[in-house]
Write a structure and sequence with these properties.
208 residues; alpha+beta; three-stranded antiparallel beta sheet; 10 strands; 38% helix
C-alpha cells in the first residue's frame, strides 16, 4: 500500500525468499533480499507503479540461506478515485517469478556460442544455420568472408545458392547440384570438397 508503506507477501513467496511466514511485509524487507545494485531501479519502478504504470524488472535476489536467484518482478497499480477525482494508486500488486534456471541456460548458451565462434575463427571454419521452415540462412562472419558475401547475417536460401555458385570453380557446379539433390531427397549428411574460384582468397583453394 503506497500510502502506508505496508503490504502482504504470499506464503509461497515467503517460502521462496525464506522469510518468516505471515510476517509483516515492507519494502525495506524486500530490499533486504535484493542485490544492492538493483535497489534504486526497484524503487523507481515502484514509484512508477504508484503513479499507475505497470512495471517489469529482473532482480538478483538472495534467500536467507544465501541461495542466489534471478527473479522477474512484474505488476501494476490498482487505482482508486482521489478526493479531486484524479486516479491515485490504492495498492500495488506484483509477482516475483523465479527465472534462475532459464537465465543460467541463456548464459551457458551464450558462453558456448562465444567459445565456438573463437574456435571457428581460429580454424577458418564458417558456419550457417539453415531455417528450412522460413527459407532463410544465417551466415556467420567467416562464412560470409569465404563466400564473398557483403556481410554476415540472415539471407534468403536462394542467396546462399548464388553465393556458393559464385565462390566455386565453374566445373564444380554439377557436383554441387547433385549433392543438393541428395540432401533434399535422402536427408543424408552433406560432405563434399569443392574447388574454389581463383579470385577468392589466394592460397585458399578448397571448401569442405
Amino acid at each position: 500500500h503506497p500510502a502506508t508503506g505496508g503490504g502482504r507477501v504470499s506464503p509461497v513467496l515467503c517460502a521462496r525468499l525464506e522469510l518468516p511466514a505471515y510476517a509483516p511485509a515492507s519494502l525495506q524487507a524486500l530490499l533486504g533480499r535484493v542485490d544492492p545494485q538493483h535497489h534504486d531501479a526497484l524503487r523507481r519502478v515502484l514509484e512508477l507503479a504508484a503513479a499507475g504504470q505497470p512495471f517489469e524488472l529482473e532482480l538478483d535476489v538472495t534467500a536467507a540461506s544465501g541461495r542466489a536467484m534471478r527473479m522477474l518482478a512484474a505488476g501494476h497499480a490498482d487505482a482508486a478515485a482521489g478526493d479531486a477525482g484524479d486516479p491515485a494508486a490504492d495498492r500495488v500488486t506484483g509477482v516475483l517469478h523465479d527465472i534462475t534456471a532459464p537465465v543460467r541456460a541463456r548464459q551457458e548458451i551464450g558462453e558456448l556460442t562465444e567459445r565456438r565462434s573463437v574456435a571457428n575463427a581460429a580454424s577458418g571454419i564458417g558456419v550457417w544455420d539453415w531455417d528450412l521452415a522460413r527459407g532463410t540462412v544465417l551466415l556467420d562472419a567467416r562464412l560470409a568472408q569465404l563466400l564473398g558475401a557483403p556481410s554476415a547475417g540472415e539471407v534468403p536460401q536462394q542467396a546462399l545458392r548464388s553465393l556458393l555458385d559464385g565462390a566455386l570453380a565453374p566445373e564444380e557446379a554439377q557436383r554441387l547440384q547433385q549433392a543438393r539433390q541428395c540432401l533434399a531427397e535422402q536427408a543424408e549428411p552433406l560432405g563434399l570438397e569443392l574447388r574454389r574460384a581463383d579470385d577468392h582468397e589466394p592460397g585458399q583453394h578448397w571448401l569442405h
